[in-house]
Design brief:
single chain; YiiX/YebB-like N1pC/P60 family cysteine hydrolase; signal; 12% strand; alpha+beta; 2 domains; Papain-like_cys_pep_sf; 48% helix; Peptidase_C92
Protein backbone atom coordinates (compact mmCIF):
# COMPACT_ATOMS: atom_id res chain seq x y z
CA UNK A 1 0.00 0.00 0.00
CA UNK A 2 2.77 2.42 0.98
CA UNK A 3 4.60 1.70 -2.26
CA UNK A 4 1.47 2.50 -4.24
CA UNK A 5 1.08 5.81 -2.42
CA UNK A 6 4.62 6.82 -3.33
CA UNK A 7 4.16 5.77 -6.95
CA UNK A 8 1.01 7.85 -7.18
CA UNK A 9 3.12 10.95 -6.50
CA UNK A 10 5.88 10.15 -8.99
CA UNK A 11 4.68 12.71 -11.47
CA UNK A 12 4.66 15.83 -9.35
CA UNK A 13 6.64 18.77 -10.69
CA UNK A 14 9.84 17.34 -9.23
CA UNK A 15 10.05 13.59 -8.82
CA UNK A 16 13.58 12.61 -7.90
CA UNK A 17 15.12 10.32 -5.36
CA UNK A 18 15.08 10.89 -1.61
CA UNK A 19 18.36 10.43 0.22
CA UNK A 20 17.61 8.94 3.59
CA UNK A 21 19.33 9.80 6.84
CA UNK A 22 22.18 7.38 7.70
CA UNK A 23 21.33 4.43 9.91
CA UNK A 24 21.39 5.31 13.60
CA UNK A 25 23.09 3.62 16.59
CA UNK A 26 21.36 0.58 18.14
CA UNK A 27 19.70 2.58 20.91
CA UNK A 28 18.05 4.86 18.33
CA UNK A 29 15.22 3.84 16.05
CA UNK A 30 16.38 2.41 12.71
CA UNK A 31 14.76 2.37 9.29
CA UNK A 32 13.14 -0.96 10.14
CA UNK A 33 11.59 0.53 13.26
CA UNK A 34 10.36 3.78 11.72
CA UNK A 35 7.53 2.76 9.44
CA UNK A 36 4.65 5.13 8.88
CA UNK A 37 1.39 3.20 9.06
CA UNK A 38 -0.72 2.98 5.93
CA UNK A 39 -3.36 5.42 7.17
CA UNK A 40 -0.84 8.17 7.94
CA UNK A 41 1.14 7.48 4.76
CA UNK A 42 -2.06 7.80 2.76
CA UNK A 43 -2.90 11.07 4.54
CA UNK A 44 0.51 12.54 3.71
CA UNK A 45 0.06 11.56 0.06
CA UNK A 46 -3.33 13.27 -0.02
CA UNK A 47 -1.99 16.24 1.93
CA UNK A 48 0.91 16.74 -0.48
CA UNK A 49 -1.51 17.07 -3.38
CA UNK A 50 -3.39 19.74 -1.39
CA UNK A 51 -0.12 21.58 -0.80
CA UNK A 52 0.64 21.54 -4.51
CA UNK A 53 -2.85 22.86 -5.29
CA UNK A 54 -2.47 25.58 -2.65
CA UNK A 55 0.86 26.66 -4.11
CA UNK A 56 -0.66 26.93 -7.57
CA UNK A 57 -3.62 28.91 -6.26
CA UNK A 58 -1.28 31.20 -4.34
CA UNK A 59 0.94 31.84 -7.37
CA UNK A 60 -2.04 32.67 -9.60
CA UNK A 61 -3.66 34.90 -6.95
CA UNK A 62 -0.43 36.83 -6.44
CA UNK A 63 0.11 37.21 -10.18
CA UNK A 64 -3.44 38.53 -10.70
CA UNK A 65 -3.12 40.96 -7.78
CA UNK A 66 0.18 42.34 -9.07
CA UNK A 67 -1.09 42.66 -12.64
CA UNK A 68 -4.35 44.35 -11.58
CA UNK A 69 -3.15 46.37 -8.59
CA UNK A 70 -4.80 49.60 -9.76
CA UNK A 71 -8.08 47.86 -10.56
CA UNK A 72 -8.22 46.31 -7.10
CA UNK A 73 -8.10 49.80 -5.58
CA UNK A 74 -9.66 52.41 -7.83
CA UNK A 75 -9.98 51.48 -11.48
CA UNK A 76 -12.89 49.56 -13.00
CA UNK A 77 -12.90 45.78 -12.90
CA UNK A 78 -14.17 44.07 -16.04
CA UNK A 79 -16.78 41.34 -15.79
CA UNK A 80 -14.04 38.88 -16.76
CA UNK A 81 -11.95 40.16 -13.83
CA UNK A 82 -14.87 39.65 -11.44
CA UNK A 83 -15.45 36.14 -12.74
CA UNK A 84 -11.76 35.33 -12.23
CA UNK A 85 -11.88 36.66 -8.66
CA UNK A 86 -15.02 34.64 -7.90
CA UNK A 87 -13.48 31.46 -9.30
CA UNK A 88 -10.26 32.03 -7.36
CA UNK A 89 -12.20 32.73 -4.15
CA UNK A 90 -14.20 29.52 -4.55
CA UNK A 91 -11.01 27.52 -5.15
CA UNK A 92 -9.52 29.04 -2.01
CA UNK A 93 -12.58 28.18 0.09
CA UNK A 94 -12.61 24.60 -1.16
CA UNK A 95 -8.92 24.18 -0.41
CA UNK A 96 -9.28 25.82 2.98
CA UNK A 97 -12.06 23.45 3.96
CA UNK A 98 -9.96 20.42 3.05
CA UNK A 99 -6.85 21.75 4.79
CA UNK A 100 -8.76 22.70 7.93
CA UNK A 101 -9.64 19.03 8.45
CA UNK A 102 -5.95 18.19 8.71
CA UNK A 103 -5.10 21.31 10.72
CA UNK A 104 -7.62 20.38 13.43
CA UNK A 105 -7.45 16.58 13.25
CA UNK A 106 -4.23 16.10 15.24
CA UNK A 107 -4.18 19.29 17.29
CA UNK A 108 -4.94 17.67 20.64
CA UNK A 109 -1.39 17.98 22.00
CA UNK A 110 -1.63 21.77 22.08
CA UNK A 111 -5.30 22.06 23.01
CA UNK A 112 -6.83 22.96 26.37
CA UNK A 113 -3.62 24.18 28.01
CA UNK A 114 -1.89 20.80 27.88
CA UNK A 115 1.79 21.05 28.79
CA UNK A 116 3.95 19.05 26.39
CA UNK A 117 7.41 17.83 27.42
CA UNK A 118 9.85 16.28 24.97
CA UNK A 119 11.57 13.43 26.83
CA UNK A 120 13.76 11.13 24.68
CA UNK A 121 14.18 7.72 26.30
CA UNK A 122 11.60 8.21 29.07
CA UNK A 123 8.56 6.62 27.38
CA UNK A 124 5.47 8.43 26.15
CA UNK A 125 2.84 8.95 28.86
CA UNK A 126 0.24 11.40 30.14
CA UNK A 127 -0.28 12.69 33.66
CA UNK A 128 -3.11 15.12 34.34
CA UNK A 129 -2.47 18.03 31.94
CA UNK A 130 1.13 17.06 31.09
CA UNK A 131 1.96 14.95 28.04
CA UNK A 132 5.43 13.39 27.95
CA UNK A 133 6.51 12.65 24.38
CA UNK A 134 9.30 10.17 23.76
CA UNK A 135 10.48 10.27 20.12
CA UNK A 136 12.05 6.83 20.54
CA UNK A 137 8.91 4.79 21.13
CA UNK A 138 6.12 3.99 18.69
CA UNK A 139 3.46 6.06 20.46
CA UNK A 140 5.68 9.14 20.63
CA UNK A 141 6.62 8.77 16.98
CA UNK A 142 2.97 8.60 15.97
CA UNK A 143 1.98 11.64 18.05
CA UNK A 144 4.86 13.69 16.68
CA UNK A 145 4.06 12.68 13.12
CA UNK A 146 0.38 13.56 13.56
CA UNK A 147 1.27 16.91 15.10
CA UNK A 148 3.51 17.67 12.12
CA UNK A 149 0.62 17.02 9.75
CA UNK A 150 -1.60 19.46 11.65
CA UNK A 151 1.17 22.05 11.97
CA UNK A 152 1.90 21.97 8.25
CA UNK A 153 -1.76 22.21 7.31
CA UNK A 154 -2.08 25.27 9.55
CA UNK A 155 1.07 26.81 8.07
CA UNK A 156 -0.20 26.32 4.53
CA UNK A 157 -3.45 28.05 5.57
CA UNK A 158 -1.60 30.98 7.17
CA UNK A 159 0.77 31.32 4.20
CA UNK A 160 -2.09 31.19 1.72
CA UNK A 161 -3.99 33.94 3.51
CA UNK A 162 -0.91 36.06 4.05
CA UNK A 163 0.37 35.89 0.46
CA UNK A 164 -2.67 35.03 -1.64
CA UNK A 165 -5.74 36.54 0.03
CA UNK A 166 -4.56 39.56 2.03
CA UNK A 167 -3.38 41.55 -1.04
CA UNK A 168 -7.07 41.58 -2.03
CA UNK A 169 -8.58 41.93 1.41
CA UNK A 170 -6.69 45.09 2.32
CA UNK A 171 -8.65 46.87 -0.43
CA UNK A 172 -12.04 48.18 0.72
CA UNK A 173 -13.50 47.53 -2.73
CA UNK A 174 -12.29 43.93 -2.70
CA UNK A 175 -13.54 43.30 0.84
CA UNK A 176 -17.00 44.34 -0.30
CA UNK A 177 -16.78 42.16 -3.40
CA UNK A 178 -15.65 39.11 -1.44
CA UNK A 179 -18.07 39.52 1.43
CA UNK A 180 -21.28 40.64 -0.25
CA UNK A 181 -21.00 39.77 -3.92
CA UNK A 182 -19.69 36.25 -3.47
CA UNK A 183 -21.95 33.23 -3.60
CA UNK A 184 -19.85 31.31 -1.09
CA UNK A 185 -21.49 32.97 1.91
CA UNK A 186 -21.92 36.50 3.24
CA UNK A 187 -19.04 37.80 5.35
CA UNK A 188 -17.27 34.42 5.22
CA UNK A 189 -14.02 36.18 4.37
CA UNK A 190 -14.39 38.48 7.37
CA UNK A 191 -14.59 35.37 9.55
CA UNK A 192 -11.52 33.90 7.86
CA UNK A 193 -9.63 37.15 8.50
CA UNK A 194 -10.64 37.13 12.18
CA UNK A 195 -9.39 33.54 12.39
CA UNK A 196 -6.06 34.56 10.88
CA UNK A 197 -5.54 37.20 13.57
CA UNK A 198 -6.92 35.10 16.43
CA UNK A 199 -4.31 35.02 19.20
CA UNK A 200 -5.53 31.69 20.62
CA UNK A 201 -4.94 29.90 17.33
CA UNK A 202 -1.59 31.59 16.91
CA UNK A 203 -0.50 30.52 20.39
CA UNK A 204 -1.43 26.90 19.62
CA UNK A 205 0.71 27.17 16.51
CA UNK A 206 3.59 28.54 18.55
CA UNK A 207 3.36 25.57 20.92
CA UNK A 208 3.36 23.19 17.96
CA UNK A 209 6.40 24.98 16.53
CA UNK A 210 8.25 24.62 19.82
CA UNK A 211 7.61 20.86 19.85
CA UNK A 212 8.54 20.62 16.17
CA UNK A 213 11.83 22.49 16.72
CA UNK A 214 12.81 20.22 19.61
CA UNK A 215 12.12 17.15 17.51
CA UNK A 216 14.10 18.47 14.55
CA UNK A 217 17.08 19.41 16.74
CA UNK A 218 17.13 16.09 18.59
CA UNK A 219 16.87 13.92 15.49
CA UNK A 220 19.55 15.87 13.67
CA UNK A 221 21.92 15.64 16.63
CA UNK A 222 21.30 11.93 17.20
CA UNK A 223 21.13 11.08 13.46
CA UNK A 224 17.80 9.38 14.05
CA UNK A 225 16.32 7.87 10.92
CA UNK A 226 13.12 9.50 9.69
CA UNK A 227 10.79 8.28 6.98
CA UNK A 228 10.48 10.00 3.61
CA UNK A 229 7.02 11.19 4.63
CA UNK A 230 8.29 12.79 7.84
CA UNK A 231 11.25 14.36 6.05
CA UNK A 232 8.81 15.96 3.62
CA UNK A 233 6.75 17.39 6.51
CA UNK A 234 9.91 18.70 8.19
CA UNK A 235 11.15 20.48 5.07
CA UNK A 236 7.70 21.84 4.24
CA UNK A 237 7.44 23.51 7.65
CA UNK A 238 10.99 24.87 7.58
CA UNK A 239 10.39 26.76 4.33
CA UNK A 240 7.03 28.23 5.40
CA UNK A 241 6.98 32.05 5.45
CA UNK A 242 4.70 32.11 8.49
CA UNK A 243 6.83 29.56 10.38
CA UNK A 244 9.91 31.71 9.87
CA UNK A 245 8.00 34.85 10.83
CA UNK A 246 6.86 33.25 14.10
CA UNK A 247 10.41 32.08 14.81
CA UNK A 248 12.12 35.37 14.07
CA UNK A 249 9.62 38.08 14.98
CA UNK A 250 7.33 36.71 17.67
CA UNK A 251 9.44 34.29 19.62
CA UNK A 252 9.61 36.59 22.64
CA UNK A 253 6.05 37.90 22.34
CA UNK A 254 4.01 34.72 22.03
CA UNK A 255 5.11 33.24 25.35
CA UNK A 256 3.49 29.88 26.10
CA UNK A 257 4.02 30.45 29.83
CA UNK A 258 1.37 33.16 29.64
CA UNK A 259 -1.12 30.89 27.89
CA UNK A 260 -3.54 30.99 30.85
CA UNK A 261 -3.55 34.77 30.71
CA UNK A 262 -4.21 34.90 27.01
CA UNK A 263 -7.33 37.03 27.48
CA UNK A 264 -5.16 39.76 28.99
CA UNK A 265 -2.76 39.86 26.03
CA UNK A 266 -4.04 42.07 23.24
CA UNK A 267 -2.03 42.34 20.04
CA UNK A 268 -2.19 45.56 18.13
CA UNK A 269 -3.65 44.36 14.84
CA UNK A 270 -2.23 47.10 12.67
CA UNK A 271 1.26 46.59 14.11
CA UNK A 272 0.99 42.84 13.58
CA UNK A 273 -0.14 43.35 9.98
CA UNK A 274 2.69 45.77 9.28
CA UNK A 275 5.38 43.51 10.71
CA UNK A 276 4.02 40.36 9.11
CA UNK A 277 3.56 41.60 5.59
CA UNK A 278 6.76 43.64 5.54
CA UNK A 279 8.57 40.48 6.57
CA UNK A 280 6.85 38.28 4.00
CA UNK A 281 7.41 40.56 1.04
CA UNK A 282 11.02 41.37 1.87
CA UNK A 283 12.31 37.93 2.85
CA UNK A 284 10.31 35.09 1.41
CA UNK A 285 8.72 36.23 -1.84
CA UNK A 286 10.93 33.90 -3.88
CA UNK A 287 9.53 30.81 -2.16
CA UNK A 288 5.98 32.07 -1.80
CA UNK A 289 4.90 31.09 -5.31
CA UNK A 290 5.69 27.47 -4.64
CA UNK A 291 9.04 26.91 -6.30
CA UNK A 292 10.39 25.86 -2.93
CA UNK A 293 14.15 25.57 -3.32
CA UNK A 294 17.09 25.64 -0.91
CA UNK A 295 19.68 26.83 -3.44
CA UNK A 296 20.07 27.46 -7.16
CA UNK A 297 20.83 24.75 -9.68
CA UNK A 298 24.41 23.92 -10.68
CA UNK A 299 23.66 24.60 -14.33
CA UNK A 300 22.86 28.26 -13.66
CA UNK A 301 26.64 28.70 -13.45
CA UNK A 302 27.54 27.37 -16.90
CA UNK A 303 28.99 29.87 -19.36
CA UNK A 304 27.12 31.69 -22.10
CA UNK A 305 29.16 29.72 -24.63
CA UNK A 306 28.07 26.45 -23.04
CA UNK A 307 24.42 27.49 -23.19
CA UNK A 308 24.86 28.39 -26.85
CA UNK A 309 26.39 24.98 -27.45
CA UNK A 310 23.38 23.27 -25.84
CA UNK A 311 21.03 25.23 -28.11
CA UNK A 312 23.04 24.53 -31.25
CA UNK A 313 22.83 20.79 -30.64
CA UNK A 314 19.07 20.76 -30.10
CA UNK A 315 16.48 19.74 -32.68
CA UNK A 316 12.69 20.18 -32.67
CA UNK A 317 10.99 17.49 -30.51
CA UNK A 318 14.07 16.71 -28.46
CA UNK A 319 12.98 15.56 -24.99
CA UNK A 320 14.56 17.26 -21.97
CA UNK A 321 14.77 15.62 -18.54
CA UNK A 322 16.14 17.30 -15.44
CA UNK A 323 16.97 16.75 -11.79
CA UNK A 324 16.59 19.35 -9.02
CA UNK A 325 17.53 17.74 -5.68
CA UNK A 326 17.44 21.18 -4.02
CA UNK A 327 13.65 21.47 -4.37
CA UNK A 328 11.24 20.31 -1.69
CA UNK A 329 9.23 17.91 -3.82
CA UNK A 330 12.40 16.07 -4.85
CA UNK A 331 12.90 15.02 -1.24
CA UNK A 332 9.86 12.78 -1.19
CA UNK A 333 9.60 11.12 -4.57
CA UNK A 334 11.59 8.06 -5.72
CA UNK A 335 13.32 7.92 -9.09
CA UNK A 336 16.26 9.90 -10.48
CA UNK A 337 14.90 12.41 -12.98
CA UNK A 338 12.23 14.85 -11.84
CA UNK A 339 10.75 16.67 -14.82
CA UNK A 340 10.19 16.32 -18.58
CA UNK A 341 9.85 18.97 -21.28
CA UNK A 342 9.90 19.25 -25.08
CA UNK A 343 12.16 21.43 -27.23
CA UNK A 344 10.15 22.86 -30.14
CA UNK A 345 12.88 24.73 -32.04
CA UNK A 346 13.33 28.23 -33.43
CA UNK A 347 11.53 30.20 -36.12
CA UNK A 348 13.64 28.89 -39.02
CA UNK A 349 13.20 25.27 -37.96
CA UNK A 350 9.45 25.61 -37.53
CA UNK A 351 9.16 27.31 -40.91
CA UNK A 352 11.18 24.53 -42.54
CA UNK A 353 8.75 21.98 -41.11
CA UNK A 354 5.76 23.99 -42.33
CA UNK A 355 4.18 24.67 -38.93
CA UNK A 356 5.19 28.30 -38.29
CA UNK A 357 1.88 29.70 -39.54
CA UNK A 358 -0.26 26.91 -38.11
CA UNK A 359 -3.16 28.44 -36.11
CA UNK A 360 -2.03 26.53 -33.00
CA UNK A 361 1.56 27.83 -33.27
CA UNK A 362 0.84 31.38 -34.42
CA UNK A 363 -0.10 32.83 -30.97
CA UNK A 364 3.42 31.96 -29.73
CA UNK A 365 5.46 33.39 -32.62
CA UNK A 366 6.65 36.43 -30.65
CA UNK A 367 7.60 34.25 -27.69
CA UNK A 368 9.59 31.94 -29.98
CA UNK A 369 11.37 34.91 -31.54
CA UNK A 370 12.25 35.93 -27.98
CA UNK A 371 13.90 32.58 -27.25
CA UNK A 372 11.04 30.53 -25.82
CA UNK A 373 11.74 27.06 -27.20
CA UNK A 374 10.65 24.72 -24.37
CA UNK A 375 7.12 23.50 -23.68
CA UNK A 376 6.65 22.13 -20.16
CA UNK A 377 3.88 21.42 -17.67
CA UNK A 378 4.48 23.30 -14.43
CA UNK A 379 2.13 23.67 -11.48
CA UNK A 380 0.58 26.90 -12.84
CA UNK A 381 -0.09 25.08 -16.12
CA UNK A 382 1.56 24.21 -19.44
CA UNK A 383 3.89 27.00 -20.60
CA UNK A 384 6.48 27.80 -23.27
CA UNK A 385 9.73 28.92 -21.63
CA UNK A 386 13.34 29.84 -22.35
CA UNK A 387 16.41 27.69 -21.84
CA UNK A 388 17.63 30.09 -19.14
CA UNK A 389 14.37 29.55 -17.25
CA UNK A 390 14.73 25.79 -17.57
CA UNK A 391 18.39 25.52 -16.54
CA UNK A 392 17.90 26.15 -12.82
CA UNK A 393 18.75 22.47 -12.43
CA UNK A 394 21.65 20.16 -11.52
CA UNK A 395 21.29 17.45 -14.18
CA UNK A 396 20.15 17.62 -17.80
CA UNK A 397 19.44 14.78 -20.22
CA UNK A 398 18.43 15.41 -23.83
CA UNK A 399 16.83 12.49 -25.69
CA UNK A 400 15.92 12.21 -29.36
CA UNK A 401 13.69 9.90 -31.37
CA UNK A 402 15.77 9.19 -34.51
CA UNK A 403 12.90 7.43 -36.27
CA UNK A 404 10.66 10.49 -36.75
CA UNK A 405 9.63 11.47 -40.26
CA UNK A 406 9.01 15.09 -41.25
CA UNK A 407 5.27 14.40 -41.27
CA UNK A 408 5.44 13.06 -37.72
CA UNK A 409 7.51 16.05 -36.61
CA UNK A 410 4.90 18.39 -38.04
CA UNK A 411 2.02 16.49 -36.40
CA UNK A 412 3.77 16.15 -33.03
CA UNK A 413 4.86 19.80 -32.88
CA UNK A 414 1.32 21.01 -33.50
CA UNK A 415 0.12 18.66 -30.77
CA UNK A 416 2.80 19.97 -28.39
CA UNK A 417 1.74 23.59 -28.94
CA UNK A 418 -1.90 22.58 -28.42
CA UNK A 419 -1.08 21.67 -24.80
CA UNK A 420 -0.02 25.21 -23.84
CA UNK A 421 -2.46 26.76 -21.40
CA UNK A 422 -3.83 23.49 -20.03
CA UNK A 423 -3.99 23.11 -16.26
CA UNK A 424 -1.65 20.91 -14.28
CA UNK A 425 -3.04 17.43 -13.64
CA UNK A 426 -3.05 16.79 -9.89
CA UNK A 427 -4.60 13.36 -10.51
CA UNK A 428 -1.52 12.32 -12.54
CA UNK A 429 -3.73 10.34 -14.93
CA UNK A 430 -2.37 9.70 -18.45
CA UNK A 431 -5.79 8.56 -19.63
CA UNK A 432 -7.08 12.13 -19.74
CA UNK A 433 -5.52 15.00 -21.70
CA UNK A 434 -7.72 17.81 -20.39
CA UNK A 435 -5.03 18.48 -17.83
CA UNK A 436 -1.33 17.63 -18.17
CA UNK A 437 1.32 16.57 -15.67
CA UNK A 438 5.01 17.16 -16.47
CA UNK A 439 6.01 13.73 -17.77
CA UNK A 440 2.63 13.26 -19.45
CA UNK A 441 3.59 15.83 -22.09
CA UNK A 442 5.55 13.19 -24.05
CA UNK A 443 2.78 10.63 -23.62
CA UNK A 444 0.36 13.07 -25.25
CA UNK A 445 2.70 14.23 -28.02
CA UNK A 446 4.61 11.11 -29.13
CA UNK A 447 1.95 8.71 -30.37
CA UNK A 448 4.54 6.50 -32.03
CA UNK A 449 6.08 5.34 -28.75
CA UNK A 450 4.65 2.69 -26.46
CA UNK A 451 5.43 4.45 -23.19
CA UNK A 452 5.87 2.42 -20.00
CA UNK A 453 3.39 3.39 -17.29
CA UNK A 454 2.62 2.30 -13.75
CA UNK A 455 -0.78 1.85 -12.17
CA UNK A 456 -1.38 3.33 -8.74
CA UNK A 457 -4.56 4.16 -6.87
CA UNK A 458 -6.61 3.21 -9.92
CA UNK A 459 -4.76 5.48 -12.38
CA UNK A 460 -2.04 4.93 -14.97
CA UNK A 461 0.86 7.32 -14.44
CA UNK A 462 4.11 7.97 -16.29
CA UNK A 463 7.22 9.17 -14.47
CA UNK A 464 10.32 10.93 -15.85
CA UNK A 465 12.30 7.74 -15.26
CA UNK A 466 9.71 5.85 -17.36
CA UNK A 467 10.62 8.22 -20.19
CA UNK A 468 14.37 7.80 -19.70
CA UNK A 469 13.93 4.02 -19.67
CA UNK A 470 13.23 4.12 -23.42
CA UNK A 471 16.99 4.64 -23.89
CA UNK A 472 17.73 1.03 -22.96
CA UNK A 473 15.55 -0.42 -25.72
CA UNK A 474 16.96 1.93 -28.36
CA UNK A 475 13.75 3.92 -28.94
CA UNK A 476 15.30 7.15 -27.67
CA UNK A 477 18.93 8.19 -28.08
CA UNK A 478 20.76 10.41 -25.57
CA UNK A 479 22.39 13.32 -27.39
CA UNK A 480 23.42 15.61 -24.52
CA UNK A 481 23.92 14.95 -20.82
CA UNK A 482 25.04 16.95 -17.78
CA UNK A 483 25.54 15.63 -14.27
CA UNK A 484 25.80 17.96 -11.28
CA UNK A 485 26.40 20.84 -13.68
CA UNK A 486 29.21 19.10 -15.58
CA UNK A 487 29.00 17.81 -19.17
CA UNK A 488 29.06 14.03 -19.49
CA UNK A 489 31.18 12.60 -22.31
CA UNK A 490 31.61 9.06 -23.61
CA UNK A 491 28.99 6.31 -23.60
CA UNK A 492 25.81 8.24 -22.81
CA UNK A 493 23.56 5.18 -22.97
CA UNK A 494 25.56 3.53 -20.21
CA UNK A 495 25.61 6.81 -18.25
CA UNK A 496 21.80 7.08 -18.42
CA UNK A 497 21.35 3.47 -17.31
CA UNK A 498 23.65 4.10 -14.36
CA UNK A 499 21.66 7.19 -13.35
CA UNK A 500 18.41 5.22 -13.38
CA UNK A 501 19.95 2.74 -10.93
CA UNK A 502 20.79 5.46 -8.38
Amino acid sequence: MKKLILISLLTLVSCSNFTRTPASPPEILTSEDVQVNEVLASEVAEFQVMVEEALVWRAKAMEFAEKNAKKLKRERLTHEDIQSIHESAQTYLNLRERLMKYASKYQSLVDDGTIVKYVPGEKTSKSLNVYYIDPLDAKGQELLFQTKISLNAALVLYDSYMLGLYPYYKSRKMRKLLNTDFVGGKFEFDEITDSFFDVTQRTKMYLSIQLFDKDIAYKEASKTFVSAEEKYLDLLALQSPFYNFMKEKYKSIVDPSSFKNISNRIFDRSSFVGDLFTYSTSKVFGNSVGLIAFRKGRMTKISRREKAHIKENMKPLDILLEKTPFRLTDKFIPGFYGHVAIWVGNEDELKALGVWDNPVVKPYQEAIKDGHFIIEALRPGVQINTLDHFLNIDDLLVLRDPSLTDEQRKEFLVRAFAQIGKDYDFNFDVETDKKIVCSEIVYVVFHNIDWPTEKALGRFTISPDNVAAKVSDGVLVPVQMYSDGEKVEGDLIKAVEEKLKE
